Amino acid sequence: MKTFCTYYLLLSFFVISSNVFAQSSRGDTPKYEISGTIIDSISGQPLSYANIGILKESDKTFVKGTTTDEKGYFEIKGILAGNYFARISYVGYNPPLLPVSVNGVSQKISFGIFRLTPSTQQLNAVEIQAQKPVYQYNAEKKIYNVNEDISIQSGVANDALQNAPGVWVDLEGNVTLRGVSNVEIWINDKPSRLSTDGLKSYLQQLPANALERIEVITNPSAKYSASGTGGIINIITKEKIKKTISSVWDLTGVQSQDMLPGCRSCGQMKNGKLICMLHIITGKGKMIHIAKIL
């Protein structure tokens, strides 16, 4: 009898361990779905194409995001258990940061109906006559007319990108489209060709009032020849900015023990003149600047 009990306990332990191992090997980590509907707090009308971003509570890094549909409804799938913030952004409305606790037996978490409050911005004796709607949509692209959005004119390009449908910019300047990071950034209908750091710097310094519009192309046709699978974000600047062509590149290499293994050079074509600059930092903490106008 004692031998039978021993065999029974060993067999039970083996079965339980096998089930746990099988679940782990299949990656059966619980994933949750967050959904809800965003409406205007005054009119009660649904807010279509509002941006919803899920951020980690610890450092507010971007996890996943989406946009609302024509009825203001959204859902984000594949969220692991944990504590997050949900950020809702829409032109002309205060962007709330809502705490979200993802856990429990039910794997579907609903915000229900969330009422977004319009921002109260005082404009002193300014008459605004918009020639275009802030948002335009067609079969190929979604267009955010930055020039018609008075609320963003004092910001930078990253702020404007945050208002574009489906676009999210995190605290480090990384741009995602519908939660996908493999997205191409184009400037005036051409690929930017800038390095990742160079593009971040450019978007953080370019004033929003220098932009005409932002075009979001989630499914580029063959004419775009896009290499990224996440779509294209085409930033169209105003005519004055188009006349200035800038480029930034990095050079690395070890010259001697007194010099850091790298230097930075940049060039700018403006009003028909080429301005070249070279910055070198030595190992002794000295920086040498060389500039020449051609």
Verbal overview:
The structure is a single chain. With 294 residues, the chain is of the alpha+beta class. It has three domains: 31-116, Immunoglobulin-like, CATH 2.60.40; 135-243, Beta Complex (Ferric Hydroxamate Uptake Protein, Chain A, domain 1), CATH 2.170.130.10; 246-293. The protein has helices at 2-25, 157-163, 196-205, 239-242, and strands at residues 31-40, 51-56, 62-67, 73-80, 82-89, 97-102, 108-116, 135-137, 142-144, 167-169, 175-177, 184-187, 190-191, 211-217, 232-237, 245-251, 259-270, 273-282, 287-293. The strands form five sheets. It has a six-stranded mixed β-sheet with strand order 8-9-14-15-12-13. A four-stranded antiparallel β-sheet has the order 3-2-5-6, with no helix packed on it. It starts with a helix and ends with a strand. Mean pLDDT is 74; it is low at 4-26, 125-130, 245-262, 268-275 and 281-294.
